[in-house]
């Protein structure tokens, strides 16, 4: 992995609670709140100044722009929710561009695992622990925040241990 271990270590304590909150709120209400996305962005804006060299820090904002434009296009086509697109854009600056191929494979695996786990949970007695969650009755809709938040969390945790 090309993310530095020190950068991942700086980001993780602030980002992991946000990722878990996104997973929870998206499963509970099929919604990723704007304030969560803003807080994630502010974490990068503040902690990134410490965790990254200035040139890398500035270039990472381009990641946000590119992912936001792609997310808007996917949202317009009905392939992704607006909250998912905004969260992905706010998460993009945390990713080292050299890790993109790894991140896409990680996201694909995490998406599949999250989907299967969600569907099994929906049909199992575990559903009684949270019977009023909207994601259980959402039909074909899936709480993508579960996969997006999980992917960012796993990426940063792996970056701590396997980063350069």
TrEMBL record:
Alphabetic keyword roster: Hydrolase, Membrane, Transmembrane, Transmembrane helix
Keyword Transmembrane helix listed: yes
E.C. numbers: 3.4.23.43
Pfam families: Peptidase_A24
Any one Gene Ontology molecular-function term assigned to this protein's record: aspartic-type endopeptidase activity
Broad enzyme group: hydrolase
Domain (Prepilin type IV endopeptidase peptidase) ranges: 15-116
Residues annotated as transmembrane: 33-54, 61-82, 102-121, 142-162
InterPro entries: Prepilin_IV_endopep_pep
Superkingdom classification of source: Bacteria
Name listed for the protein in its UniProt record: Prepilin peptidase
Species whose genome carries this gene: Thalassococcus lentus
